[in-house]
Write a structure and sequence with these properties.
Elements (H helix, E strand, L loop, with lengths): L1 H6 L1 H15 L2 H7 L3 H29 L4 H22 L5 H21 L7 H24 L11 H21 L4 H19 L4 H17 L4 H23 L5 H9 L1 H7 L14 H30 L10 E5 L2 E5 L4 H28 L7 H4 L2 H15 L11 H14 L6
Antiparallel strand pairs: 1-2
């Protein structure tokens, strides 16, 4: 029992996050009228999941007394943030909102540290199996939501978080083909996961994630050119997923048509292209095309507005930040509190330039210690280590356009994926 729990801690951690997010979603609250006290308790439990690895890491660090550079930087940031919070509280500045971000950040890094240093039964293979199971759970949820989308006016789990997780799942699924001796049944399951990732992203209504996935897939094909079997399976999954999306499009299942128009942006480009003397298509726009075009316009306008508001806050206190990371934004007559869709601006708002430098130093030192930034020539670069670098860069690029970096699901997932590559036998770590 102890070994089972230890080896499946990452999976259980993420299942807990998904369940808490589901039951605190607006739809569930409206549908079954959950009391606000219960919703607050479930929200608190979400952050308790992050606090637990923080406490465990603190205890183990004190016991081991092995204070290397990454540990020193970790606690330097903790001390800096505590001083910052006291200063802001005394001066009646914002403290609560950036506290949530900090718990997610420290909890995710602590989870990575515990996994990487073998405090659980967590080999790279065990972690990979955990991630594959989690991928299947999210794909199953998304499939159900897609089919019955007419009955739900928004997803229980943030759709951007779902799409961002697919970018992190993809290299793990591809890596599994070459580093695992899979049975026929496991190969079929793996192919289903790979195809499902493509289908999900193609029907998600996010242009940024759609294009990131295409770039990620193209680079993985290039990296694996000498592994013809892997390339063939990736291409086969692409063809299979395209056929599935085409069928869903033809039968107008859920929001598939809207999502395709939204992701490609073809409608908006055609309407606004100045090279056309008559920017009116030969056929009237369908309802889905009109919705997609309108949403593209709102989305682009929102990002520009949020970036402008965030930069104004950064200018108020560049070195230490103001703590203000949510801004009032009106969409279709409804007001929302929205975070800047840019992780650099969000970090500057939360912690200032000093905090951003400490966090960046912590991440770089950790990656150097794990060996993920060390390459012994071109042959060593064209391995699955480079797939991690590609994934990390694409995820950071996506986080410049979406509120993904500090997401309650995506940040810990990114650190677990890092742990998988850090523990992989391919790097002799």
């Amino acid at each position: 029992m102890r070994r089972f729990l230890g080896s499946n801690i990452p999976l259980l951690f993420f299942i807990g996050l998904i369940l808490f997010q589901t039951f605190t979603s607006r739809f569930i609250g409206d549908f079954i009228s959950i009391p606000s006290s219960v919703t607050k308790a479930l929200t608190l439990l979400t952050y308790v999941l992050f606090v637990i690895p923080i406490i465990i890491k603190l205890f183990l660090d004190i016991r081991s007394r092995n204070f290397d550079m990454s540990v020193l930087l970790y606690y330097a940031f903790v001390v800096y943030y505590i001083i910052l919070c006291v200063y802001r509280y005394v001066n009646h500045m914002e403290v609560k909102d950036n506290l949530y971000y900090t718990i997610i950040l420290l909890g995710s890094f602590s989870l990575f540290s515990l996994l990487w240093k073998d405090n659980f039964y967590s080999s790279a293979d065990v972690l990979t199996d955990n991630i594959c199971k989690l991928c299947f759970i999210i794909l199953l949820y998304r499939s159900i939501f897609l089919i019955f989308s007419d009955y739900f006016y928004y997803s229980f789990i943030n759709e951007i978080a779902i799409g961002g997780s697919m970018l992190l799942f993809l290299p793990i699924i591809i890596r599994k083909y070459s580093t695992f001796n899979l049975s026929k049944l496991e190969n079929i399951f793996n192919f289903i996961l790979l195809s499902g990732i493509f289908v999900l992203v193609f029907t998600l209504s996010s242009r940024a994630i759609f294009f990131c996935l295409l770039v990620e897939t193209a680079l993985f094909i290039i990296i694996n050119l000498k592994r013809k079997r892997i390339v063939l399976r990736i291409l086969s999954a692409l063809v299979c997923s395209t056929a599935i999306v085409a069928i869903l499009f033809c039968f107008d299942v859920g929001d598939v048509r809207y999502s395709v128009y939204r992701e490609t942006g073809f409608t908006s480009i055609f309407q606004n292209n100045p090279s056309f003397s008559e920017p009116v298509p030969s056929h009237p726009l369908s309802e889905d095309e009109e919705r997609a075009s309108a949403q593209i316009g709102r989305s682009d306008t929102m990002r520009k507005s949020l970036a402008r508001l965030s930069i104004e806050r950064v200018k108020e206190n560049l070195w230490f930040g103001t703590g203000d990371i949510f801004y009032a934004y009106s969409v279709s007559g409804q007001d929302y509190q929205v975070a800047p869709h840019n992780f650099i601006l969000a970090t500057l708002n939360c912690y200032g330039l000093v905090g951003l430098i400490i966090i960046a130093a912590l991440m770089i030192v950790t990656l150097i210690q794990t060996g993920l930034l060390k390459f012994r020539g071109l042959r060593d670069f064209l391995t699955y280590k480079s797939t991690y670098i590609v994934t990390l860069l694409l995820f950071l690029g996506l986080s410049l356009l979406q509120a993904t970096a500090y997401d309650v699901l995506l940040m810990p997932l990114l650190f677990v994926v890092t742990a998988i590559y850090a523990k992989s036998e391919n790097y002799n770590i």
